[in-house]
Structures are given as structure tokens and as C-alpha cells.
Amino acid sequence: MMTTFRGKGVYGAIALGRISVFKRKEASVKRTHIDDIEAEKARLEAAKENAKAQLQEIYDKALREVGEANAQIFEIHMMMIDDDDYNDSIVGIIENQSVNAEYAVAVTADNFSEMFASMDDAYMQARAADVKDISNRIISCLSENQDESAASDEKVIICADDLAPSETVLLDKDRVLAFVTAFGSSNSHTAILARNMNIPAIIGVGEELLKSVRDGDFAVVDGYSGEIFVDPDEETKTRLERKRTEDEEKKRLLQELKGKENITLDGTKINVYANIGSVDNIGSVLANDAGGIGLFRSEFLYLESSDYPTEEQQFAAYRKVLESMAGKKVIIRTLDIGADKQVDYFNLAKEENPALGCRAIRICLTRPEIFKTQLRALYRASAYGTLGIMFPMITSVPELEKILSICEEVRNELKSEGVEISDQVELGIMIETPAAAVISDRLAPMVDFFSVGTNDLTQYTLACDRQNAAIEQFVDTHHEAVLRLIEMSAKNAHEHGAWIGICGELAADTSLTESFLRMGIDELSVSPTFVLKVRDAVRRCDLSKY
Ligand code: PEP
Ligand code: MG
Question: What is the pLDDT averaged over residues 352-356?
């Protein structure tokens, strides 16, 4: 009989196949008495070195397959192995209790992961899995047990309680149809890696999954709806098989649009750009023939780092994006930390309503040294391509005046240092608060462009927390209020010689493409995989018809 489990899809695609329940070789840790403490500590050191060497190999593999930003987690794992608090705890247990290193590592892993799991911050909670992951690796090295390969020989749907980042990246992509996990959060590195590995995936399905499924069970995974149907009935199987075939056919047809213009039937042209979160996504931008990058969420450089990225590190990343795009426009958004994107080293105060708190440009204006470092890196990179800089969460004219004066200060500083910078850098703002849309007539003369962030604009206009799944029924993404604010911003932008794009998720909603074009939207910036779908929608519009 068919059983249905529901979770959250982290990559939309359909997969049909047999289940393989992910088996982790649990290192069974026994507590034993040790007489020679020094020898035990030396054994621990050797195991740690071995674990780091393994991680280096995984890092190299990840670097080749999923790029630098996604591989970074394994560098962080290597650093975590050397973390002082973590090591003091292990060594302290060995010394004080005269016990074996395996036991000391296992106890430390439990304590540290519980500590992370109990934190309020979703990002920190996700780190609990990392501590367990490195600890299991050390224990495995101590016991001279090497992990078995995670993948089976045939193509399978992997079902697991949760997958540690190192387990996910070690999966042989050619043998994995999909993965489904009982737990996991969309903030975890596993989810991020999965999206980048293009593996259909569902997380947070619940404990029942592993109690019910067995190796070899047939299932269908619908990564769009977040459902897995185990032992599906004929109707479900046929429906999703048809959907998969349609998906493949649509993808194939869309490929034919590469190299073609984003032009309506009546001759109106717009730009279709791509949104990225990392330098590693550029391959996908180019493969999908995007005309430029409409939103580079620079905060991911901060999220993936364990400390503030330096000016040099940022410069290298921005320069690489600009050079790879070979003169095509690249709009880099200054950091949008806060709300759902928390970074521990920023030490932000805990807030009752973080989405309404100190986030994005508010952090930059209260901590200008962070802002200036980023601006210096951006302006230095501007000499290597066509750069636009965009500021998030704008609400007022004085705020924008302040930002523009800091930009000027940074430009003058660099010029006086003899650094080459472009004098063609466009400056723009995100329209993602109702305030910005309402005063867009005042803001437009101050900038070169607007980019509408519909994700936040919808949240703030409808007073619906974008993170809260429980109020989804109240979120009408086509709400007239949101559409009117976009239209108002477009009119005001054009009256003052600025151009306007949309970079929120709504830009990829092709049921609205014609409405956006009628409003005069000049650019739509979407996930790389949606570029051709939007191009197709644009080419079907006829604005001469009413
Ligand atoms: C938006 O708010 O629509 C947007 C593009 O920014 P983010 O989703 O990163 O907040
Ligand atoms: Mg936003």
C-alpha cells in the first residue's frame, strides 16, 4: 500500500527508483581504563592527523565537484579538529578520568553538539551535525575503521536520518537518484550542497520515514512538492512519470533558446540576468546563457567564513566574478546579514523581531568599517568588468545620502592611493520595503537603478514573516498591493532616468512576466536554471495586444 511522507523540497525534480537506507558505520565506543595517559594522547594526535588528511582529500574532491565555497566546510572541519575548547575537553577527559581517547571524543561530541543544538540561531544549530561528523571521523581513525562508501552500486534514492556534509559530498552523484532525510534544515550545509550538486532532495520528512522504509522499496520523490511516495499506486506513478518526462522535454526545448534575444513578439527587449550566491555558481550562469548577474548575494562570502572576510579575499571573489562574466553586467549586493542570515562572529544582539531589526544596510551604517572594507574590495574589482553595486533594505533618503557619501569617500581614498577603479560603476538600491517603493520618486534621482526584492517586499507589505510556514495561506504572492508598489517604483524610476529590475523569486513567476513587461520592468534576475524559462515567457508576450 502506498505511504506518503511530506517534508521540504530543497531541489525540485522528480525521481523514481529503489530506496537505499543510508547506513552509517556507527563506531561503537566503549569506555576503557587507560594507564599510560601520554601514550593515549599520542594515539589521539595521530588519529587527528589521519582525520585531517582524510578531510583534505574530501576537500579536494568537493573543490573539483561543487566548487570552493561549498568545499570550504571541510576546511572548517579541519580547523574544528584543532579547536582549543574541543581539544581541551577531550584531553581533560582522558587525563582526569584515565579513559580511552574514543570515549573522550564521543563524550565531547555529545556535549558540544547538544550545546549547538540548544542555541536559538538556526545556523549554529546546524553546526551540531559538524561536531558529530568530525568526532565520528576521529573515532573511526582511532579504531582504524574507515567509513564505507556511502553509495550503493545501482542508482538509488538515499533515505537517511540526516546526512553530514562530508557524507553528502562523498556520495557518488552518478549513483544517486535523490535523497530524502528525516531531519535536516534548509540552512544546513547538506541542503546547500545538495542544491549545488543538483540532486533532487527532500529534508525534514520526520522520524516515521526510517521506521517504515526498507532497502529495495520502490518510491517516487517529488522534489517540487516535497513528497515521497513509497510503494506508489499506479495513478501516482504514472502522474509523476509524466511530469518527469514533461520536465525533461521542457528543459530540452528551452536549450534551443540559448543565444536568442529576450524580445517580445512586438519587439520589446529586456535583460534576463541570473542570481548567484557564490563565485562557484558562475558556471551555471554561463551554461544557461544569462545576460549578466542581477544579484550576487555577497553575504554568502560572510556566511561561509568563520571570520570577517578580508578586503583581499573579497576583492579576489568579486574580481573572479567580473572577469568570468567578461564585460557583462554584474550587480553585487552589499552584505545582507541579519534576519534569517545569521553569522556568529558579527555578535549581533538577539532581537525579538530580527526581520525588523538590525539587518543589511543597518549593520553597514552602524559598523561602517565593515561596509568600507566591502566597498574598497568592490571598487578595486570594478576595473575588471562592468560592475553595479546595490544596497539592500533601503527605507529613507537620508540613509541613501549617507551611503552615497561613504561610497564617494571610498572612491577618493582609493584614487589617492593610486588604485585603478572604473568610473562607470552603477549604484542602485533594492526596493524591498514598502517605504522605499512609496518614496521611489525621491530615491530614483539619486541612483542609476532599482531592483525589486519581492521576497522581502511581500513579507513587509503583507506583514507575513517569510520564514513562517504556518501562515503560508495568507501569503498571496500576486497581492495587488505588492504589484502596485512595483508598478509605482517602475514609473518613478523611469521618470528620473533610472532603470528597474526584479531580483526576488517573483521574477521567475512566468504567469506575471507579461504584467511586469507592461509595467516597464527592464530586467528580470532569476536563478540560473530559470533564465531560459523566463526568456521563453518573454518571447511569447505581445504587448501590442490588450
Ligand atoms: C528579496 O528580498 O526579494 C531578495 C532578492 O533578497 P533576499 O531574498 O536575499 O532577502
Ligand atoms: Mg531581501
Answer: 92
For residue 52, the CA-to-ligand 1 centroid distance in Å is 37
Closest ligand 1 atom to the C-alpha of 504? 3
Containing 134, the helix (H) or strand (E) segment is: helix 122-142
Q: Do domains 37-143 and 266-545 have the same CATH topology?
A: no
DSSP 471: G
Whether the per-residue pLDDT at 295 is higher than 80: the answer is yes
CA of 186 to the centre of ligand 2 (A): 17
State mean pLDDT over 353-372: 95
Find out whether the beta carbon of 455 lies less than 6 Å from any atom of ligand 1. Answer: yes
Q: Where are the domains of the chain?
A: 3-24+149-234, 37-143, 266-545
- Report which of 41, 30, 134, 31 is spatially closest to residue 88, judged by C-alpha positions: 41
Using most ligand atoms within 8 A of CB, pick from 297, 303, 464, 524 the residue to mutate for ligand 1: 297
Report how far ligand 2's centroid is from the alpha carbon of 452 (Å): 9
Q: Output the CA 437–ligand 1 centroid distance in Å.
A: 15
Among 106-115, 122-131, 214-223, which is the least confidently predicted range? 122-131
Candidates 1.10.274.10, 3.30.465.10, 3.90.226.10, 3.10.20.30; CATH matching 37-143: 1.10.274.10
Tell me the CATH number for domain 266-545. 3.20.20.60
For residues 147 and 210, give the distance between their C-alpha atoms in angstroms, rounded to a whole number: 21
CB 392 within 8 A of CB 333: yes
Tell me what pLDDT residue 328 has.
97
Distance from chain centroid for Cα 156: 25
Ligand 1 pocket test: pick from 303, 430, 462 the residue with the most ligand atoms within 8 Å of its Cβ: 430
Cell representation of residue 293: 548577474
Neighbours of 450 (CB within 10 A): 30
Atom of ligand 1 nearest to the CA of 456: 2
3-24+149-234 placed in CATH 3.50.30.10: yes
The stretch 190-211 carries a mean pLDDT of: 76
| Catalytic machinery residues | 189, 503
The rounded distance, in Å, linking the Cα atoms of 279 and 364 is: 22
Q: Is 454 in the pocket of ligand 1 (CB under 6 A)?
A: yes
